[in-house]
Amino acid sequence: MSKVDKIIKRVFDFSLALIGLLITWPIILTAWIIASFETKSNGFFLQKRVGQDGKLFTIIKIKTMHNNKGSTVTTANDNRITKSGRFFRKYKIDELPQLINVLKGDMSFVGPRPDVPGYADKLKGEDRIILSVKPGITGPATIKYKNEEEILAKVKDPIKYNNKVIWPDKVKINKEYIKNWSLKKDIEYIIKTIKG
């Protein structure tokens, strides 16, 4: 992506995030209240993720689990997921607070999903192109693996399968996305995500 491409992408992201927050803030507030009551803690899930150039930032999501300690790989049958959390995840409501991350400039609407330290920050060689852009709320890899939790729930060793199969495939998909970026494709990915 050129500097001009990144400027166009940023203007698009900022404008859409601002509009999105103005429309969805009542939903975010309601979800936060419900999550706060159910988890008996702050309804926002805050976690350090790897962003552009490998810099860490704090991602903001609606809390969907009783206890976020333990494995970072979550499966569909994980007993830590709350009742409201399953609903929020199904309809992507837990992702809405990330509009704040986009507005702040930590994230983009479309791009590689931001991972916890130990994945993206360990990339080497050509694969590090993934760190040249801001991570996204959605993207081609996110769309392909929209049922990732269900996939992981069916394998014997979810962590190994994620590390050996899903993660390398995501890297390949994200590299192609960055090399062939266009605003038109970003809009198409956003529409596909909304349609489910």
Report what the structure shows.
The model has no long low-confidence stretch (mean pLDDT 93). It is built from 7 helices and 4 strands. It has one domain (3-195). It is 50% helix and 10% strand. The protein is mostly helical and 196 residues long.
In short:
The chain has 196 residues and is mainly alpha-helical. The chain has helices spanning 3-39, 83-90, 98-104, 140-144, 148-153, 158-179, 183-195; strands at 44-50, 56-62, 108-110, 136-138. It is globular.
Order of helices and strands: HEEHHEEHHHH
Strand content: 5-15%
Number of helices: 7
Overall shape: it is: globular
Average pLDDT: 93
Poorly predicted runs? none
Distance between the termini: 27 Å
How do the strands line up in the largest sheet? 1-2
Classification by helices and strands: mainly alpha
Biggest sheet statistics: 2 strands, antiparallel
Number of strands: 4
The value of Rg in angstroms is 16 Å
Helix content: 40-55%
Q: Give the tally of structural domains.
A: 1
Oligomer: single chain
